[in-house]
Design goal:
- Keywords: 2Fe-2S, Iron, Iron-sulfur, Metal-binding.
- It comes from Hoeflea ulvae.
- It holds the Pfam family Rieske.
- It is built from no helices and 11 strands.
- With about 100 residues, the protein is mainly β.
- Strands 2-3-4-9 form a 4-stranded antiparallel sheet, with no helix packed on it.
- Strand 5 and strand 6 form a beta hairpin.
Length: about 100
């Protein structure tokens, strides 16, 4: 069953930045892309379980702060080694000034 959960206000996430969102026992990363859209992935790197919200966003990539591997956060696909396992992505909805994740 899909659950729609409010994450934050659109103003809480600068363009080309990442926002950490903890819900229940899970951590997510919410991105505000250079295209103005919002995206969501699992919050931990698949390589060494580092928090992606501590990483660097460049265009549509998130760079892991631990070993500097990177992912395309729109698709979850690895783009820079050492990461080789994709991130899980989640649908995002924006309503009024609120960002919601569908989990």
């Amino acid at each position: 069953m899909t659950q729609r959960v409010r994450v934050c206000s659109t103003k809480d996430v600068e363009e080309e930045d990442v926002y950490r969102f903890d819900h229940a026992d899970r951590t997510f990363a919410i991105y505000h892309g250079p295209d103005g859209s919002f995206y969501a992935t699992d919050g931990y790197c698949t390589h060494e379980k580092a928090h992606l919200a501590e990483g660097i966003v460049d265009e549509f990539e998130i760079e892991c702060p631990l070993h500097f591997g990177a992912f395309d956060y729109r698709t979850g696909d690895p783009t820079v080694a050492p990461v080789c396992i994709a991130l899980k992505t989640y649908p995002v909805e924006v309503a009024d000034s609120d960002v919601f994740i569908l989990i």
